[in-house]
Amino acid sequence: QVQLMESGGGLVQPGGSLRLSCVPSAGIFTFKSTGWYRQAPGKERELVATITTDRNTNYADSVKGRFTVSRDTARNTVYLQMNSLKPEDTAVYYCNAVENIWLTQYWGQGTQVTVSS
């Protein structure tokens, strides 16, 4: 069973930065897509950013130009660099991975990101 280990959440002031990390128990190469979703209180879970094995990226319009998703194969880690954070970015952030071929989807336990002054 694949586990996604998330870290990096916390409290940050508006305009600040935060980097989330996700380390899967399986090699990143086994996933055709990895990335991040988030869920704010009272709202549905939404896509934030994803990256595929061929390095195509997809971002929510609300985070374009501020967030960067990346993969580090050597460290077997998926990152979400979050800059210029806004209060509306406050949410629980979930790592996500889609396995090659079978397209099985895995989720991390979630890490809280709070943007507040």
Secondary-structure class: mainly beta
**Separation of the first and last Cα atoms:** 40 Å
Order of helices and strands: EEEEEEEEEEE
Shape: globular
Q: What is the tally of beta strands? A: 11
Beta-strand share of residues: over 45%
Query: Which stretches are poorly predicted, pLDDT < 50 over at least 5 residues?
Result: none
- Output the radius of gyration: 13 Å
Mean pLDDT metric: 96
Describe the biggest sheet? 7 strands, mixed
Share of helix, binned: under 10%
Describe the protein.
This protein is mainly β. Helix content is about 0%, strand content about 55%. It is built from no helices and eleven strands. The protein has strands at about 5, 10, 20-25, 30-40, 45-50, 55-60, 65-70, 75-80, 90-100, 105, 110-115. Strands 2, 4, 5, 6, 9, 10 and 11 form a seven-stranded mixed β-sheet that branches. A four-stranded antiparallel β-sheet has the order 1-3-8-7, with no helix packed on it. The termini are far apart.
Question: In a nutshell, what does this entry contain?
Answer:
By secondary structure, this protein is an all-beta fold. The chain is 0% helix and 53% strand.
What brief labels describe this structure?
11 strands, 4-stranded antiparallel β-sheet, 117 residues, single chain, 7-stranded mixed β-sheet
